[in-house]
Specification:
The protein is of the alpha+beta class. Helices cover about 20% and strands about 40% of the residues. The strands form two sheets. Strands 1-2-9-4-7 form a five-stranded antiparallel sheet. Strands 3-10-6-5-8 form a five-stranded mixed sheet, with no helix packed on it. Keywords: Dioxygenase, Iron, Metal-binding, Oxidoreductase.
């Protein structure tokens, strides 16, 4: 599953993300930001990887992972979207190509949220957040064409199937 990056690059990425204090610190977020900035600055490398693609959907491709972090390339087919969600772990992402629209929400109860902000994320954009929240958002690719982003999550991909903590339904504010 982790065959997309060479063993050397995979090892370097995971070493650069390792901090003594774990994945819930500002030091970790700084390290993740540096790794993402390096990866999004190499769109040719990322675009040449044999990444799974699903027209109209998004597909997650594991690039590297260990017991503390997982690094994914997400290919966003035109029209694809995540649910409205927050995370149980640190969440960092950078846009490699295309445009990913990120919409932020505010929870009004345990499963409903209202939209607060929306931004188009262009190639080179990098963001990092801790799960201390509120970090409720939705990612979408309105097109044209596909988009690719790299995501670094502070979780073991062999223990958790996803970084999502809670999913929400949008309601009018």
């Amino acid at each position: 599953m982790q065959g997309f990056l060479s063993e050397e690059r995979r090892g370097a990425v995971l070493r650069n993300l390792r901090t003594d204090a774990g994945t819930l610190t500002r030091d970790y977020l700084s390290a993740a930001r540096e790794v993402l900035q390096e990866l999004v600055a190499m769109p040719d490398l990322v675009q040449r990887l044999p990444l799974e693609r699903k027209p109209g959907c998004y597909s997650r491709n594991l690039l590297a992972g260990n017991d503390a972090v997982s690094v994914w390339a997400i290919v966003w087919g035109e029209g694809s979207a995540t649910s409205i969600h927050d995370h149980h772990c640190s969440c960092c992402f950078g846009v490699v190509s295309g445009t990913v629209t990120e919409t932020w929400y505010r929870a009004i109860d345990t499963n409903r949220a209202v939209q607060t902000e929306e931004q188009e994320r262009q190639p080179g954009y990098v963001a990092c957040m801790l799960p201390s929240g509120p970090n409720i958002h939705r990612m979408r690719n309105f097109g044209p064409g596909e988009a690719i982003s790299i995501h670094i999550y502070g979780f073991d991909h062999e223990v958790h199937a996803s970084s999502i903590e809670t999913e929400y339904t949008a309601v009018s504010g």
